[in-house]
Amino acid sequence: xxxxxxxxxxxxxxxxxALRRAVNAxxxxxxxAAEAPSGVALERPRKAAxxxxxxxxxxxxxxxxxxxxxNVARKIGEALAEQLGVDLGxxxxxxxxxLNLRLADGWYRDALAFVLSAPDRFGAGVAxxxxxxxxxxxxANPTGPMHLGHGRNAAYGDSLCRIFEFAGHEVSxxxxxxxxxxxxxxxxxxxxxxxxxxxxxxxxxxxxxVDEIAAxxxxxxxxxxxxxxxxxxxxxxxxxxxxxxxxxxxxDTWFSERTxxxxxxxxxxxDTLAAASESFEHDGALxxxxxxxxxxxxxxxxxxxxxxxYFSTDIAYHADKYARGFKRLIDVWGADHHGYVARMKSAVAxxxxxxxxxxxxIMQLVNLTENxxxxxxxxxxxxxxxVDDLIEDIGADALRFFMVQRSHETTMDLDLALAxxxxxxxxxxxxxxxxxxxASILRKAGEPGAPEGEGSVExxxxxxxxxxxxxxxxxxxxxGVAAQAVARSTAGAGHELHASERALIxxxxxFPDEIxxxxxxxxxxxxxxxxRDLAAEFSAFYRDCKxxxxxxxxxxxxxxxCRATRDTLARTLDLLGVSAPQSM
Length: 584
Known about the structure:
Among the domains are: 9-103, Arginyl tRNA synthetase N-terminal domain (Gyrase A, domain 2, 2-Layer Sandwich), CATH 3.30.1360; 424-575, Isoleucyl-tRNA Synthetase, Domain 1. The chain has 21 helices and 15 strands. By secondary structure, the chain is of the alpha/beta class.
């Protein structure tokens, strides 16, 4: 991988990707094929003593090569030595046929130069097939403030969109306003009752916020319930909008359910289903043949009393999304929507679409613990925890980080005491503090481009064109100075890298893979783990390696490593919607 004739280490491609290609090429050569057999993997060993990376290539290739796996491993090691040259320190056969690879310091210096070559775009553009994606999330009924569950939904949805955009997808964030139907009518009746000083109907909304709305509407006691409902919905949407802004959540489109009915799109969607013989009349009701597409039974679109179901308007809504040109629809739903998945996928198929392009993400419940007790939430009774109160208590950064640090597929408890704590036990504080510490080191060293005061990395923008890491930074830019420092260190003999320096660089170059995997799995929680791990590797490096005051080449290299770590931590936090403070 080292090329003595190259002008700058920043010209090199992703070193980890190149290493994978080399392993696959070596494996293919051993079995005499154009490509390696499927299943060849390159991973970090569980124990550092086993090398920098390990591959199972020999065990995968042995049946094809009709040879003992350990013999195959030796052959692959010899082929890698020819390909990698001085970058490969050793290739050791272990166990039944694993091949443990130890890479030379030169490989690590090149890897750091790669990270520094385009700091703003490092890890970006990893999507193999960029798509135009619509992500609908939160979509809280506009009959009350956002509660804890909506907060988890918002943090997850916005982080997923940020990561998609960074990876290269075109993303539109959407909020579906349920401003039509029985729940809106009950909301209007509740406001009317409060305005007249009467008890709220049994099936109405009883939170204190209903009193506030009634008091804010002039002449509310004399207005029709339908008018009060629409005014109340508009007020709640503005409140929800303000809460999302406090969380750092952007919504591109606020889509009104009522508009589907007002401009004929609802009727057109039903006509499309009827024309394709996907719907039918039975016992005075209108049905959709969802059982035809794997649902457990057909579903009602219009009841015998003439009322249309929520399902029917949802079909029209998703038909409209596809009509707007989106190639993939991702809906972030609450835990109570699990039974809705099959029927909506069936509806997409009935409309003539590909159900695989419709992805419902089911968020599991989140519980708030305070003094060992769980707070119950119910928007109608008023016994719920508003997201605004949580922001006031623990801050938007802690709220967002904690809300995505567990997989969306698992129920989580939000520990308020931990979220308030300013110590290494608090994961968001731990990652932010690592970033602030590096910023302080760079300021102390007079590093060019080291910002003063508070701040964070620029928000990620959609990626087009060449992948990150291919451009050479200008010599007078901060990235250029850092990359040149690594180049100077690489050009000479350089210092022997400490194990902690190597471990930190290994963690840094995993970032593009982490972005790709996070996108693939729709799993922002992976970045919270990556951020904590990167902060931990930096802490070990800072403990073991003197950064400032050593001889010039060593200091230059370690300052460059600090800058690369700071930038990657900042980007990780930004993709989670969390700030990266310069001081704490």
